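BUG: 3D viewer hangs when loading the predicted structure for this chain

Environment: internal workstation, default settings.
Expected: structure renders.
Actual: progress bar stalls at 90%.

Input used:
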Amino acid sequence: MAACDNFGGHAFQAIRRHRAPESVSSQKRAPEETAKSIRRPPSHGEEIIVSKSQIIRFSRVVDLSQAIGPDTQMFPAYPPPTFTQWTTREVHGFFAESLFLISHTGTHVDAPFHFEPKGRKLHQMPLDRFVVPGHVLDVRGLPKKGRILPTHLQSSIRTAPRPYRNGDAILLRTGWWERHRGTRAYLFENPGLTRAAANLLLDLGVGLVGIDTANIDHPDDATYPAHHALLAANVPVIENVANLSALGSSAFFLLALPLNLQGTSGSPIRLVALAE
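Structure tokens produced before the viewer hung:
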């Protein structure tokens, strides 16, 4: 058996990435799913750390993240990201930038502390919460400032191609990023998740919830019911999810790892789906 490390209370081992055969002769080669130790660096593009209880095969890596730069859309309360040259090759021998940005910039994760005074800060969240199987719930067709109700979720859940398991991630596809990114409507007229719908997701046992809008709540509801319901239950929230149309109905494994920031209420993430 391959040597293993513990990660978030679960044993993990490295396996090779599944690739489609390139030729008839390649189909005769020995399978490349042999487990290897994660104590040595993986070969470029070849391996991924996964749970021993399952083998994850994927044929493509789908980037679900928004780009971060001076033009990233931000709410009025937040300044835009700024990257400033800090060193020069002429003086220091190398080039580096200072980064000024809010912890909730671009595609990002909210820790419970973002809304709950006694909630967990980002560094207190289990890391394995951000590496989980994912599902897309399609709730497209809602109008501007529409409300995502339990009935909308139930309709999508009934037609889901795969069963949901405790701790899985749910990504809500409203179509808002696809249709309205770069406009005022993206920030201020999005559909919002109701408290009842958030509670339905909790009853489903989700461990992570994302949405392709800048705010998971309804833009006119300053009580933030969806944020409070999910974060009070220690379920992190991902906002500004991009490119969900690229996933379609594919099965995927979600990587939503935040920066290792100490004491913060959130972090930008590079949200990636390993899709079939």
